[in-house]
C-alpha cells in the first residue's frame, strides 16, 4: 500500500500544527496559595513552624500543684496579636485565699521558630515561659525553659479559642 505524497504532507502538517497548538496553551491554573508568613522582625518566611502550624491562640486553664495549698488556679490567654493575659490564684487551705496575680503584656516565640513562648518584654527577665503544643501549653522554668517535672502536672488545657 503506497501513500500519496500530498496525503503524507497533509498528515505531517496537521500533526505539526497540533503539536504547536498544544505547546501554546496557557499553563494550568495554580491553586490560590497564600504567601508564606513573614516574621514581623523581617527575618524572612517562617514556613512550617509551631507559630504557623499550631492553633495556639486561645485560653488555657488548669489547677497546678502547690506546696502548702490545694492548688494554684491558672488561666492563660494567648492572643493572635501576640499579647497575653495570665491570672493565677492560690486555692483554699487554712489561710485566706490569695488575691489573683495577673500578667498582661507581650509574648514572643523563642527561638522565633520554636515551640516556647516567653511572656515579658525582651529587655526584662521573663514573667513566664510555656511550651506550646496543639491543644495545651506547659508551664516551664521562666529562666531556662526546662520542664518543671517529668509529669504533665504543669499542663494547661485549651478551653476556648482566642477572641
From TrEMBL:
Pfam families assigned: NlpE (PF04170)
Keywords noted in UniProt: Signal
Signal peptide as annotated in the record: 1-22
Name this protein carries in UniProt: Copper resistance protein NlpE
Species this chain originates from: Comamonas aquatica
Source organism phylogeny: Bacteria, Pseudomonadati, Pseudomonadota, Betaproteobacteria, Burkholderiales
